[in-house]
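debug: dumping io for the single-chain case to check the tokenizer round-trip. Nothing else runs in this session.
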Amino acid sequence: MKSIKTKSAIVHFNDSVYSELNAYIKANNPSKIFVLVDTNTHDACLPKFLSKVDSGEVVIEVMEMPEGEDHKTIDICTGVWEAMSEYNADRKSLMINLGGGVVTDLGGFVASTYMRGIDYINVPTSLLAMVDASVGGKTGVDLGNLKNQIGVISEGSMVLIDTSFLETLPHNHMISGYAEMLKHGLIYDKSYWNMLVNFENLEASALDNMIYDSVVIKNNIVTEDPTEKGLRKVLNFGHTLGHAIESYFLGNGDKIPLLHGEAIAIGMLLEAYISTKTIGLSTEEFKEIEKGILKTFSKIEINENDQKAIIDLLKYDKKNSHGKINFVLLEAIGKPKIDCEANNDLIIEAFEYYNK
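debug: decoded output
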């Protein structure tokens, strides 16, 4: 697969990944290499990765963090910063983030802020991270249960996508990443959406071309608007309500936490419904979206008390401005509209539709 040039990095795929990484190390001669993993990727991915890396005389230090969204915190960052300092990391050190979206988000933030910024490379190992979290330079951590409230936009030097790592993923994590791919179709390319919803084999070996297409779509959007002043906001379709749902289920001990893609799938369905009531998404296309999402994602019970709490969390959404909650909605599949508003009554109506 041909490598993809982003604004300040290059995304390499499969066969070229390790030769490009080794060439980068040789050319840049970092003082030390730090590899950040979580408890899952330490066992499932790190041995293969290290076996492929030729660091020459450069020392590699492995740092391990707990897995899961609830550990994407500033406290974990502090632990990583302190470990790097103890191992004498300097401004010529290189950080490699080997993991899913939690590792690439947190590791990118750590690298972007340590000594005001060191080089880093993302090696995404989950489908979600390959198609979304590792590309575009968004880094950061959660503030309590609020998603990605602290962070910077700072792109790494390279992204290395080795899709063989997907063979280590549980099926529900594959489905979680698939939600972001569906989003790319809904906001950008109806033919891509049609291909995805008619795809029957969510196996690692069959996904290479679609992963590539998703990276191209995201890169096209981010290249035009790297700091999210306008067009890049379309990538947040499904995320206004989806992030609030994810935060609520993560912070409520009575609920089973949802994976990111599971929450975003609900958010996309709700926001598509709102689109039919506000900006003219056709009933036909809405039903198509509903069928496409529910084909893969099971419905989750969201009762009246849940709805009120989720709506209350919307005030923390990063797209908000001047006290207004801003949504990305759909005029049609492939035709998003940013900075839309919806009142609470309509949001509750969307939840009621979803529950029925």
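debug: round-trip ok. The first strand starts at residue 4 and ends at 5.
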